[in-house]
Amino acid sequence: MTRKFINTIIWTSILAGLIMFVAFANEKTPYNALLFIATSFSYSIPLAFVNGFGNQWLDTKFSWANETKKRLFYGIIFIVLGNAIVVLTRNYIDFVLIQKTDPNKFFTGITAFYNWAVINVALLISAILHAKSFMEEWKKSAKKEVFEQKIITGNVSAQFESLKNQLDPHFLFNSLNVLSALIDENPQQAQQFTESMSKIYRYVLEQKDKELVTVEEELDFAKTYCVLLKTRFENSVNFVFEVDEKDKKFFVVPLSLQLLLENCIKHNFATANNPLNIKIYSEEGHLLIENNLMQREQVKDSPGIGLSNIVQRYSLLTKQHVSIEKSEDFFRVKIPILTQKNTAMAMQPTSESIAYNRASKRVKELKGFYGNLISYCLVIPFLIIVNLYTAPRYHWFWWPMLGWGIGLASHALQVFGIGRNWEEKQIRKILEKENFNK
Description:
It is built from twelve helices and seven strands. By secondary structure, the protein is of the alpha+beta class. The chain has a domain of 182 residues: Heat Shock Protein 90 (2-Layer Sandwich), CATH 3.30.565.
């Protein structure tokens, strides 16, 4: 029990007592005002404790977010039974034991109406409390979902950045090894190699923060890199580029060709009499890097850092997979060509975001139902009081109560009942049928 809870009970009781005093007191005296306030306290204190602790107990047993139907079902039972028992017990003590009213008239006449009216007010307050509990629970659940989504996004971004940062030292190390060999063999070529390497490294720095680049940009970079490799290995390595012009405007992961070319050199031996032939071409929405297989024995079982890097980066960006084909004669890697940048997985809704959107939609549906329920509990008792006060012999209040009640029941079935499950089943059947026809 918190201080806020106690203050709420006190001020609510005083306000309700004053409203009842102004509306129903025949004599507007301070004594009657205190009497109405005391009466209000005699109802609000037991009702507040029963509803407050009952609501907390139900929250520990059934979660609004995960067990909505159970929580609603047991909540309704508790609201009706708990409030009816509290109100009837209090009224029996007041009317029968204190005011000495005939017990046989407790459920008839004005006493019965008084019991019914107070129970309805208690049910309204309880419904508001349960709706408040529901909203707080779903708010916490939504915040948790958003927080988890941020963590997932942050982890993916951090992982992607980590993978990209592996490129710089790896590329620099191998390039410096090539340059070191050329300095002794051919200083003039070493100077040209240094200039070309600076252009390549400038491209690496420019593409560092990009998730995707055009195929044309990547091919231009790969050709420059191949010039450096040709300078180092001369006739021991041959390169062929056969990429369709229509594919050059689409997108691939940056520096993917450089890593795959480096992978070919690292895992194969090459001589002038038995050269390593590397072919880069496009086919059916993929960019292929193929080489004749002359595998080094010491790295026979190694998948290659470059190839592993490419596979991981594509897995973070798209649902399309990198394909690896190997035979006795060749080794081929197929990387997807992405037709649009927004096909990347980072641009697509994840399963977590889809679940969050469904949860948000569910919250809106439940908010609408509880708003309808609270309105019903407020308006119908008011109409009953007006009817009994203005025309006690003609009970016209049954018509709006029944009509609105049927609508409320239909709303409840739509949100919680059979209709919702039936719709979802039919949607799944239609989708399965369409997928089967495809």
